[in-house]
Amino acid sequence: MRVLIAGGGPSGATLAALLAEQGWTVTLADVLPSPSRNAYSSAALPLAEADRLHIPHHCRSAPWCGWQLLDPAGLEHQWWAGDPLGVVLDFAAFRSHLWRRVQRAGAELLCGWRVSLQQLRATSADVLLTSSDGAVRSCTVDVLVDATGPGRVLLRQGGVAVDTTTDPLLTGEGVEWLLQGTPRTTARWRDRLSFMLGSNWVPHGYGWVFPMEADRLKVGVCRMAPLAGTSRALSVSLRELLQRCGLDDLPVLDRHGGRVSSTVNRQEKLGDGALWAVGDAASTANLLGGEGIRHAMDSATILGQCLLAGRPLLEYRTELMQHFGWRWRVANRLARRTWWGLDDPSADRRMARLIQGLSGQASAEGLSNLLFQYRFERYGWRLLPYLI
User: Fold this and answer.
1) Assigned CATH for 44-91+170-262+338-387
2) Quick one: 2-36+92-167+264-336 is in which CATH superfamily?
3) What is the H or E stretch that residue 107 is in?
4) pLDDT tens, 223-234?
């Protein structure tokens, strides 16, 4: 079987390596010329998940053992554990690791190449590959995989309905800066994940400060607004956040940005004929916290198993639904209600009550289970009135 995967992120690279290791002929193409370009991902995940996914230690930039939420008034609320709860990844190093794995498995890796779908059939697809220097290649493949992320480039080219009125795509956008700090300027942000919640921080969204090695900080803002939402530039919110947090004088090492999109009920088609979707292109990004890496990798494993077993596209969709479960849909519904409505003082008051409720009920471990594992049973149901 000859496979072409468009997109070398966590899902595309994981799938390419998995299939190549099983003897399939695989080509992985990515528009980026190197894995260090546009390394946009806050990339915070639980320690157990980093171990489960076999993420090497050299890709783990900094551990964290606490949570810090700054409410709409700027008051700090903290939760601490005795041992590390998770890690913040160096996403550029992680993507480099994944690309090396792809090459070791024997797959062809094309950096700086764009994929265009020319013709889609039930059991094959004709594609055109164009490099950044103008070189052109055409080929026919048995399986074509869209791992292009929220853009869903190949799905759209193939005429697959990715955005329907019954289960429309919800889209968030974010910007993130990598700052160089000092032991003094990073002390307030070390060993914890910090989030800023409230419309006076970011209308329809939130801000964050994550620690990295060598006194570096990832600082960003993200929003998910309704169609008639705010027109305020995200860069304005980010600069204001930096100023309020006393980080506006730190040198900026890198600026990057990106989008995340998903449906609430995940009812959209995940491909057609020889075309399959994986990762963010298959709505695996969770909108409540904008998290995608581990879910994208899990979707790649599920798709790889389906392809190797010769299972049809419908079974792949069913297995994804079973893997993510009902909590996934609840989390995305909460995301839509929370971020769409976070745009006025009354919403800020609800958010403040939510944070205060968590302060009285949740431990650091419990908060991690709530936000990463979507364990609403213990804390979430009692907190829903603050959101609704």
Assistant:
1) 3.30.9.10
2) FAD/NAD(P)-binding domain (3.50.50.60)
3) none
4) 998 875 566 789
